[in-house]
Give the backbone structure.
Amino acid sequence: MEMIYVDHAATSPLHPEVIEAMLPYYQTVFGNPSSIHQIGRQARQAIDQARRTIAKKLGTSDQNLVFTSGGTEADNMAILGYALEHELNGKHIITSQIEHHAVLHACEELEKRGFDVTYLPVDETGRVSVNDVQEALRDDTILVTLMFGNNEVATVQPIKEIGDVLKGHQAAFHTDAVQACGVIELNVSELPVDMLSISAHKINGPKGIGLLYVRNGVKLRPVLFGGEQERKRRAGTENVAAIVGFAKAMEIAVDSIEERQELYQQFSKILIDTWTKEEVIFSINGHQHERLPHVVNVSFRGVNIESLLMNLDLTGIAASSGSACTAGSIEPSHVLVAMFGKADERIQSAIRFSFGLGNTVEQIQRVANETAQIVKRLGQQSEFIS
Ligand SMILES: Cc1ncc(COP(=O)(O)O)c(C=O)c1O
């Protein structure tokens, strides 16, 4: 039985070229980049080169990138690091109810430390209202942190318009672009953001490496203390091989964005057309147009999602009930609750398919067919029981 992986928003396989690029940094060029001998200097050069590569792909200078252990640390660095450095200017932060827990829990930590956080609501498509941002802004607001694209429902936020609202205000603007990176063009010189988080394992790079873009002149208090790595912004011996792999993954992802956008649109269409033809009752969650192309979140009315996921797994298909952190426990998704309210049936029956490296038209057609058959079977059972 062929395994079909459609959970790329949780994590993604390493691209073969990424593995190839990384190997020398485990085997021969294993030096500590802070060491002054040759092998250390070679490791340092590899980091410098990787940083330049990623900076170019993000439209910025290499000095503005801080490598971290992933998206979670980048979000924490931005939120805690900025808030603690600037608390004398105010203690108010604006975020949304549908952020990743890396943002939500960092904000909750700040609340415990005396900060005031506004968690903006979203509409049924998962979008924050620009007007709500405007109304929530106060003289003591120091930071606005809103995600670029949502990891569960794919909705993209109106980042440019929110940036316009923040013009002339002291508040810094951070965006979690972990899911958007590699599927949507991100050029920080054109985006109105001061900080932006990304993570390698979502774009066929290794796990445990990410970065925070920090606009020139924006000051952060370090979250980790130790050595002077990353120009004193992030202590700890650099993960050289992972950084090299991250740069390779970034190059491949950014250079193939357009063709993959088209392919993922085709995949989405296959799912939707098949379910329509099979007369399955379903509704797509998230915004219809303002969306990340690689994620389809769908509710199948009356279907127990745990049973659907288990049945799919038995046929070799790996999908997800939502974010990786809540999968397993299958708690109601905080994103869907924010969009629809607690009592809505769509929350109990939502499943996320996310596309990436290795997926083919044939695979997605099989995913569509198997899902339709299982949904019909389970749907009939649940109607029978009730
Ligand atoms: C939107 C978003 N932000 C942050 C993260 C955390 O990134 P990492 O797994 O690299 O810590 C994720 C991962 O699921 C994510 O989807």
